[in-house]
Amino acid sequence: MTTPFGPSYVREIAPYVAGKPISEVAREFGLDEARIVKLASNENPLGVPESAQRAIAQAAAELGRYPDSNAFELKAALAARYDVPAEWITLGNGSNDILEIAAHACVERGQSIVYSQYSFAGYALATQGLGARHRVTPAVQYGHDLDAMLAAIADDTRLVFVANPNNPTGTFIDGAALEAFIARVPADVVVVLDEAYTEYLAADKRYDSIEWVRRYPNLVVSRTFSKAYGLAGLRIGFAIAQPALTDLLNRLRQPFNVNTLAQAAAVAALGDTAYLEKSAALNAEGYRTLTAAFERMGLEYVPSDGNFVLVRVGQDDAAGDRVNLELLRQGVIVRPVGGYGLPQWLRVTIGLADENAAFIAALERSLAPG
Ligand SMILES: *Cc1c(COP(=O)(O)O)cnc(C)c1O
């Protein structure tokens, strides 16, 4: 018998199942890469904004040196955009890094973190990686039950994760309800409000969480360049919080966690409002197409405010994996969510019009009897 390495809470971590890469599906199913449609990881189907591509090309010449650890230009751009001092900003290697940094900065082994059933997988992982206690509240209609989350906050709770909109369900909490929740969370419990999809919100659903940061010293608002800004591969996200909390996060952050190309690309993308508007419009149109198809096919789906939709593809717990395999054979990659406790469902990212059409056609074939 060999002695196992590491603490038991690390050994118990289930490996993360990412959306399959195109190249892997091409190899496994003998398909042409160019014909594969990937709607699995909530990436922006428009690809890297051209403004960011130009910035990346320019910044490449500087790669012999370490990145600017303090990301002066990007923090200045974010500070101007959100009207906060640069001292309120923490940068992350993706917003996933922000979630990890916040958990490590605020919680120790044996203390607890509150989050909802069916919320982003990163919350369970960050909790487990710390040897912290999970306090998971049951979802209501696939979304967060804020009253249950408040009630779940115990003496040992140091942090609460809230995703709005949530992934993988796409559910949304309106601003008034969310602020009322934040106001009631004890002052010594940090709220990480994960707004990875906020740029996709319709105008009538928007709310100003940065304004809340000014009022609540225990609030961290987390955002990303991976989704609406089209820079998932560069790994860059950021957090806005008051200086006391931001200082703590920045002490724990790896000094060079955001690379030179990511910093340059993010500055460009942040200023590219045309790209952002185009992305949101394309998404809204694709959402209408997909949900109309689901209705036509008699499939239940969860109304979504993100760039993806959760759709129920069968009534048995093998349905998600079965239909996923049928889709893969036809060169369509979506995201099975059995790991989230949703084995009858698939999550599909809203793509370009022809990608959505290819998915719908493949789904119809997958569900056809016989
Ligand atoms: C995608 C996602 C993230 C993480 O994205 P990064 O690429 O690490 O910025 C965080 N939270 C939610 C809810 C997400 O869907």
The third-level CATH topology of the largest domain is: Aspartate Aminotransferase, domain 2
Provide the gyration radius in Å: 21 Å
Number of strands: 13
Report the sheet with the most strands, covering strand number, pairing sense and barrel closure: 7 strands, mixed
User: What proportion of the residues form beta strands (DSSP E)?
Assistant: 5-15%
- Any idea how many domains? 2
Decide which structural class fits the backbone.
Answer: alpha/beta
Mean of pLDDT: 96
CATH homologous superfamily classification of the largest domain: Type I PLP-dependent aspartate aminotransferase-like (Major domain)
Weakly predicted, low-confidence segments: none
Strand order of the largest sheet: 2-8-7-6-5-3-4
| Span between termini | 50 Å
CATH architecture term of the largest domain: 3-Layer(aba) Sandwich
**The CATH top-level class label of the largest domain:** Alpha Beta
| SS summary, helix count | 14
The SSE order reads HHEHHEHEHEHEHEHEEHHHEEHEEEH
Helix content: 40-55%
Ligand set: pyridoxal-5'-phosphate
Query: Globular, elongated, flat, extended or rod-shaped: what is the shape?
Result: globular
Plain-language structure description:
The structure is a single chain. β5 (157-163), α8 (175-184) and β6 form a beta-alpha-beta unit. With 370 residues, the chain is an alpha/beta fold. The mean pLDDT is 96. The protein contains 14 helices and 13 strands. It is globular, with a radius of gyration of 21 Å. α5 packs parallel to α6. The longest helix has 24 residues, at 273-296. It has two domains: 8-47 and 274-367, Aspartate Aminotransferase, domain 1, CATH 3.90.1150; 50-271, Aspartate Aminotransferase, domain 2, CATH 3.40.640. The strands form three sheets. It has a seven-stranded mixed sheet, with helices on both faces. The chain has a four-stranded antiparallel sheet with strand order 9-10-13-12, covered by helices on one side. Strands 1-11 form a two-stranded parallel ribbon. Bound molecules: pyridoxal-5'-phosphate. Pyridoxal-5'-phosphate (PLP) binds at residues 42, 94-96, 120, 122, 163, 167, 194, 196, 224, 226, 232, 237.
